[in-house]
Every structure is written in structure tokens, then in C-alpha cells.
Amino acid sequence: MVQTNPRSCCTWLRSHPSNSHMEYIKHPVVAISTFSQMDIAANLVGYVHDNRATAPLETLQFVVSSGKATHNGTLEISAAASCPCWRVTAA
Asked: Superkingdom, according to UniProt (predicted)?
């Protein structure tokens, strides 16, 4: 595993589910596709679901880069009201 400074890590979303998006908490409704590890650590980024999903699982594909290494991953989020669950997998 490559050790990196969290300030240099950046995430790009490769896909957005049709019923959700990521946004900065201070700028609601504006979908974003790029954010940093520091944004996540400071609780500045949120996932917003519009409750119109017909499938029980939402999937976001992303790329994380430190400038030295790049990794693909998938974030699966349960869209069921009874089970708000997250699972991240690396590709």
C-alpha cells in the first residue's frame, strides 16, 4: 500500500446513479463529481438520494488518486429505507 498525504488525495466519480448525487453540504442541490479526502474528513461532502429508486441498491463508480497512485472503486449504497448500508469495494 502506498502511503500518501490525505491533502493530496482526490476522488473523481465515474458514474452517478440516476436517483442520487454527491454534493458539498454548504452548497446543497449542486451535484459534484470531484472532491478531496480532506473534504470527506471535514464532513463537507454528502450523498443525496431522491427516494425515486426502483432498485434496492445504488452504485457509484469512482477513481481515487494521490498523484502517485490511482485506484478504481465502487461504492454500493442500499436504497432501502429499512437498511441504510454502505459498502466500498476496490477494483
From this structure: Eukaryota
Query: Edge-to-edge, what's the strand order for the sheet holding 45-49?
Result: 31-32, 20-24, 45-49
Q: Give the other-Cβ count within 10 Å of 57's Cβ.
A: 13
Pairwise CA distance, residues 43 & 27, whole Å? 13
Contact call for residues 6 and 42 (beta carbons, < 8 A): no
Asked whether the beta carbons of 57 and 76 are under 8 A apart, the reply is yes
Taking residue 16's Cβ as centre, other Cβ atoms within 10 Å add up to 16
Q: For the chain, what are the domain ranges? A: 6-90
pLDDT digits (tens, 9 = 90+) for 74-87: 888 776 655 555 45
- pTM comes to 0.71
Question: SS3 for 52?
Answer: coil
